Input
Amino acid sequence: MALAIPPAELDTQNQAYFDKCVEKIGFVPNVLQAYALDMAKLNAFAGMYNDLMLAPSGLSKLEREMIAVVVSSINRCYYCLTAHGAAVRQLSGDPILGEQMVMNYRAARLDPRRRAMLDFAAKLTERPHEVEEDDRAVLRKVGFSERDIWDIGAVVGFFNMSNRIASATDMRPNEEYHVQARAPKV
Amino acid sequence: MALAIPPAELDTQNQAYFDKCVEKIGFVPNVLQAYALDMAKLNAFAGMYNDLMLAPSGLSKLEREMIAVVVSSINRCYYCLTAHGAAVRQLSGDPILGEQMVMNYRAARLDPRRRAMLDFAAKLTERPHEVEEDDRAVLRKVGFSERDIWDIGAVVGFFNMSNRIASATDMRPNEEYHVQARAPKV
Amino acid sequence: MALAIPPAELDTQNQAYFDKCVEKIGFVPNVLQAYALDMAKLNAFAGMYNDLMLAPSGLSKLEREMIAVVVSSINRCYYCLTAHGAAVRQLSGDPILGEQMVMNYRAARLDPRRRAMLDFAAKLTERPHEVEEDDRAVLRKVGFSERDIWDIGAVVGFFNMSNRIASATDMRPNEEYHVQARAPKV
Amino acid sequence: MALAIPPAELDTQNQAYFDKCVEKIGFVPNVLQAYALDMAKLNAFAGMYNDLMLAPSGLSKLEREMIAVVVSSINRCYYCLTAHGAAVRQLSGDPILGEQMVMNYRAARLDPRRRAMLDFAAKLTERPHEVEEDDRAVLRKVGFSERDIWDIGAVVGFFNMSNRIASATDMRPNEEYHVQARAPKV
Amino acid sequence: MALAIPPAELDTQNQAYFDKCVEKIGFVPNVLQAYALDMAKLNAFAGMYNDLMLAPSGLSKLEREMIAVVVSSINRCYYCLTAHGAAVRQLSGDPILGEQMVMNYRAARLDPRRRAMLDFAAKLTERPHEVEEDDRAVLRKVGFSERDIWDIGAVVGFFNMSNRIASATDMRPNEEYHVQARAPKV
Amino acid sequence: MALAIPPAELDTQNQAYFDKCVEKIGFVPNVLQAYALDMAKLNAFAGMYNDLMLAPSGLSKLEREMIAVVVSSINRCYYCLTAHGAAVRQLSGDPILGEQMVMNYRAARLDPRRRAMLDFAAKLTERPHEVEEDDRAVLRKVGFSERDIWDIGAVVGFFNMSNRIASATDMRPNEEYHVQARAPKV
Output
């Protein structure tokens, strides 16, 4: 049973944001509904999320979503696996890739860049205190820049946050995610 | 060796923020220096941080800092243990409490409210997928409201993020923290 | 890359079995193809599997498949999660239930019987040496008979075997599973 | 207290099997007594077991028993450690080797082939989702064939099953095993 | 390969101690041979060991040996499991009890006092930072005094030390232990 | 609440020892007060401790204290982290080094010798059963002798003992430690 917190009244800007969600994807993601308990918190969350996942980066949007799912798989976060699993299926046009990120990313046939990226994400999630210079060196070797490493760390960090807020509050994903992008793109 | 990312030029608002840091605490925390690689990211981080740790809440500022340190202790994050350990010492006037949060919060003689709060924080950090309604029930029983539970989850989540960004980028704390508030307040 | 073991020649009985698979579900499951390296091993595996999952039992076929997926989720077995996740979706007519078993069974709203069954399965998978009389007592309390407990243990055991054989040999699921039963039954 | 399940009536074939056990080793192993709750299950178990442990293989019978004990040691299975520990002592004529398999196989002075085999068995038991091509490559390097790798995986899998069924049902080993083959063969 | 450290010359007192070992048990335990690299260290170790395991205590000698084996089982210490497993067999006259302590103490049919004692020993070995007043309360409830709790903690601590020194230095048990007390006392 | 065990009467030698503690450091360490329940135990503990930490060794006193803190950090022992964290600050004149040993030794900029020493200490604490010849070879490569390896193992072992006795008995450090050596030596 999710936390019983009444939503605050949406301010104009966030009302527009929510309207745009409905227009573009047909619904307002439940994580945003949950943060609507407080406009300042909604702004802080949406601001960080949109910068992180959508702003220009050496990581493609798909790569950022792949990291999101791998982190959420380790933390077994039902909300994030559902929502971001759908995003991987959609952005890649490859529903099997989405499933592999949810189940065990090691089963996917990835190029060395993406494999190194996800190995780093897994270690940073499971044993952050053991991440050291050698781990960054592996990323550099497959072509990631200093700034890319920051971005990988930031996405890993963000979903380690979101996974825990979702678990703490029993956040439930919109059912729409489950059916999205199940057929391979041709 | 920290990531070699040149800082962006500070915009006016953030220059003022950094100046105010120097004025009030004598230095700019290295985490802000690190985020200064990009004004949008700096704004997103500082916005979320300040709302989370300073805005009105059913949790006192000290309680939020105690959570920060307990989470960072589990993740063994040198940066956050140093900076937020100092904050616990300062806000509580009790340097031993700060040390206990760093070393093992179970060694502190806490009232049932704070003990339940930190047990929840520890479980949410270590085994987020096992946090369920029963865990929230324990928090309610010691007096936390629905909104307080959100706030606990949000602080736990935030430091699970920060700890990992600090580890990923080898962020190092300002040396000033180490000597702060070592003497008990009288 | 899966093990490069040439299949043995199928004997008449197994040829018929494989033909029946194609007729009924459109393909021969890759696990059977893999065991076709040796007729004795194929017979032993199929014999045990069919008895376990299809013979009369106090556990419904859906319940046995739910256990299969929960065990495979803990062991992160790509093959079994794919094949048996599809089976849960199909038998339950509830694609979301299938996803929850894959992601984190604690997120599903289960009745006490099924929850106890899956908690037992999880503990028996993760910490078999700590399973004791108290754990069986919980199962009895929600209505399972002595024989049902045997059957739960046997299904948990079987998938702890299969998961490891799949990992050891890099067994890959037939792609057909991914699209099966994605739409809720009406 | 073991599960209170009355045995079914033995069919002729299994009565002969049990009689042969008594004749050859002096008793019917309790695992067979336990499976005698249902002739189909007894046949499935005994069929798989006998093929796995006794059929021709690139692995010697002793090697298969060594794997059985190492897996059971990780899962701390009292039944299997007792029964298969005795088998290692007997097949090797080296009681100390049997004890080492039970206690910590790393303490035994093994040739590289057997050490690699047991390291693979340990990893496949503890972290099956991390077993990949590199792990199989190590086995190939010390001389194991593709089919041998299958057999190693199958034995590891089987005892991960048996260990859990024994724990789930509180199966107890026949006391006779404890004294078997305690003296070194000369 | 054990550490290549030449033994120091035994002083008169320790020569007598070693002679007495040979006289009473037929050999000098290898742990004493190892500590003979330095008389001060040998004295410190033997002094603590003899006080701990042989001095009057609310714990019987058998109980202290049972703790020794359970701790060593968790740490998988070949030396201590061998030497102290033999001691449990000998002191109890029950070889099966010795095996159960080595394999999984939960499989033994223990009275509540001994079960609580070994549960405490296991937790203190695996998660010392989580041992708290509640854990001591369980011991008091089954009849242990304050001083008994100290003695339990001291034996658990001691074998957590010995197990690690044995592993660090590849200490090997005298072969004589393996055959000792294998037959039940009548 | 610590164990309620009345101290025995101090014999002359230990009275002198305690007096000397007060004279030299201003107080009697609580661990000695705790062991004063029994003169034989106090002698055994103090004898081993003083030999281990103060006798000539290829390891400097600072190095031995660094190991003490790293082991205690893994075991999260409030007593030992407090007392030996102070010792590292004092012996090194570097309060930040003391904090790093408490928080995460990997954050310290150590030379290869000390890093290898602490990596060995961490592994021997967390996974003693996996310590093997290869681990000793790493120590030899950075210049440690056979005897030095013994000493490292002995210090690691000792604090794995002390940490557990402190946890079992709720031993609390003297408050004086917290303020010691907080300012960097100039």
